[in-house]
Design goal:
heterodimer, A: 269 residues, alpha/beta, 5-stranded parallel β-sheet, 5 strands, B: 307 residues, Rossmann fold, 12 strands
Chain lengths: 269, 307
């Protein structure tokens, strides 16, 4: 587990570096998913960083495309491309956009940015795999606020109707969205029973506990229905003054804030 | 035209097990034989066009060939962002097929008038747009676009121009339906039939009209338009679609950026307004002065400066 902690810490360091250097938003959203990505790429998913289009690879879609920096950081740490390329994020002429893009970036399956697209695309991939008798899984990471988008619920209906046991929807449930909390904006609760009533198996977990995340993902593999892994997370996790603060949905860390954030992360190592 | 389409997709599905046909719960009875023969390649996704389009993208990213089917606006405008971000940006092999072009469903009300789709979809990079005028042209288009593995939109009309099959369908090239020398009339979709009839009316008045079916609206090379209008100074366009950005706009954009000297130019189509009445396709064409008699009369007036 120590290696996983180190990997997650590296992602968080990249996230803070990239958003600070680039002046980009969504640092809190990216920190929120660092542990989920760590477990997926270090323990759960089958892939080959030297062959990003490996036929039987597990597919990962970041439907909450605004947290693209975390995915870029993860892919670079997983060996898909040179870590130095992360420095280009948000720069003029760069491919590393604020919202995740697949163009010329190995390992990115789908460009997103507008919410409510990723799950449907993942379902198309999962459907294709089922029909061809392929055994890989499709993992789609959504934000909680993203669940406001009606298109997701079309997708939830479809996946259970077609018994797509090879799709896993991961919800980054940090309870904060762009302007306010999810409960102030558009109440999602009772969320578990909503997913269950849509025909999905639901596993709840601490989205920052690696051991618990691994168990949750492993249990999804044997499910006969599609699975939601509802990850209770903390927006801005790992940097105390960003945690549970909606401010850091848009703000990027500058000067003293950056130094303070880095000091906290480096203490963690 | 719809039968032509099903025939083609059925033949292709026999050769390609990675072909999928998705419908947004439309086409009652139309897909019965197809779904029996290819139960795993036919999916009624339900009344959920956004999901249908994203699923199509996911399937196509896995190297499947996908067709989506619905009525005019539902699988185009309802899910426009899915077409833009997922299908077009990822440049995948998805063919969006709609029925009910223009006023095909004229009695059903404005929700079912597909009258802005061409303008809107032609702005999307990587998109290819086809608007056949009859079943034969549709068949030829379907055969010819097999090699295009990017996004495609096919707009199917209820009306049918019943053109003869003299001239081949070449993608990107307007197809000559009737030759003439006094003026050129470019039309698209089933309304090409009205264009041909208008030419027949004008012929009796010694006005010779050259009529083209512009079955490919995108991509369209300027040369392929300009070559058709050499030595003709009077150019007209006809479409059962808004004048804002459709065929008339395409032709005028090409001509205005060329060195060609044109004497008269007029677009026939639907003004920037929602229809206030319903009626069958023929009735609504009459209301909007898009029927053959009205087109012939307007062209005659313009050519002789009678207006």
């Amino acid at each position: 587990m120590k290696d996983l902690k180190l990997f997650a810490n590296k992602i968080r360091n990249h996230v803070v570096d990239m958003t600070s250097r680039g002046g980009s938003s969504h640092v809190g959203s990216a920190l929120s998913i660092a542990d989920i990505l760590t477990v997926l790429y270090c323990e759960i998913m089958h892939y080959d960083c030297n062959n990003p289009l490996l036929k039987n690879r597990d597919r990962f879609i970041l439907s909450k495309g605004h947290a693209g920096v975390a995915a870029y950081a993860t892919l670079s740490e997983a060996g898909f491309f040179d870590k130095n390329l992360l420095k280009n994020h948000y720069k003029n002429g760069s491919k590393f956009s604020g919202h995740i893009s697949h163009k010329d970036i190995p390992g990115v399956e789908l460009s997103t940015g507008s919410l409510g697209h990723g799950l449907g695309v993942g379902i198309g991939m999962a459907l294709s795999a089922k029909r061809r008798g392929e055994n890989h899984n499709v993992y789609v990471l959504l934000s909680d606020g993203e669940l406001d988008e009606g298109s997701n619920w079309e997708s939830f209906l479809f996946a259970s109707h077609h018994k797509l046991s090879n799709i896993v929807a991961i919800i980054d449930y940090n309870k904060l969205q762009s302007i306010s909390s999810t409960s102030n904006t558009l109440e999602l609760e009772p969320l578990v029973s909503k997913f269950k009533s849509f025909g999905w198996d639901v596993v709840e977990t601490d989205g920052h506990n690696h051991e618990s995340l691994i168990k949750s993902f492993e249990s999804a593999k044997s499910n006969l229905s599609p699975t939601v892994i509802l990850c209770h997370t903390v927006k801005g996790k790992g940097v105390s003054f960003m945690e549970n603060s909606v401010l850091w949905h848009y703000r990027s860390p500058k000067d003293e804030e950056y130094i303070k954030a880095k000091n906290e992360l480096n203490k963690e190592k | 035209m719809r039968n032509s389409l099903i025939k083609y997709i059925t033949e292709e599905a026999r050769l390609n097990k990675d072909l999928y046909l998705l419908t947004g719960d439309l086409g009652f009875g139309v897909f019965d034989d197809f779904s029996k023969e290819f139960p795993s390649q036919f999916i009624n996704v339900g009344i959920a066009e956004q999901n249908m389009t994203t699923i199509a993208c996911g399937l196509a990213l896995e190297n499947n060939k996908v067709f989506t089917y619905s009525i005019g606006n539902f699988s185009t405008l309802r899910c426009l962002e899915q077409i833009r971000n997922d299908i077009c940006y990822h440049n995948v092999d998805v063919t969006v097929i709609t029925v009910g072009a223009g006023f095909s469903y004229g009695q059903l009300g404005i929700s079912h008038f597909a009258t802005e789709d061409i303008s809107i979809l032609r702005t999307l990079p990587n998109m290819n747009i086809f608007s056949p005028c009859d079943p034969w042209e549709l068949q030829m288009i379907l055969k010819n676009i097999k090699k295009i593995d990017g996004p495609k939109y096919i707009r199917i009309d209820k009306s049918n121009a019943n053109t003869d099959n003299t001239n081949n369908v070449v993608i990107g090239l307007p197809r000559l339906c009737l030759d003439g020398f006094d003026a050129v009339l470019f039309a698209t979709g089933g309304i090409v039939g009205e264009a041909i009839e208008a030419a027949t009316i004008l012929k009796k008045k010694n006005i010779s009209l050259r009529v083209f079916s512009v079955h490919t609206l995108k991509p369209i090379k300027p040369k392929n338009i300009l070559d058709q209008i050499k030595n003709v100074e009077n150019i007209f366009t006809l479409e059962e679609h808004t004048l804002m950005g459709g065929l008339g706009s395409i032709i005028s954009e090409i001509i205005s950026e060329s060195n060609l000297k044109i004497k008269r130019f007029k677009r026939f189509g639907i003004n920037d307004e929602f229809p206030s009445v319903v009626g069958d396709q023929k009735y609504l064409r009459n209301i909007y002065n898009l029927n053959s008699e009205s087109i012939a009369s307007q062209i005659e007036n313009i050519l002789f400066d009678k207006s």
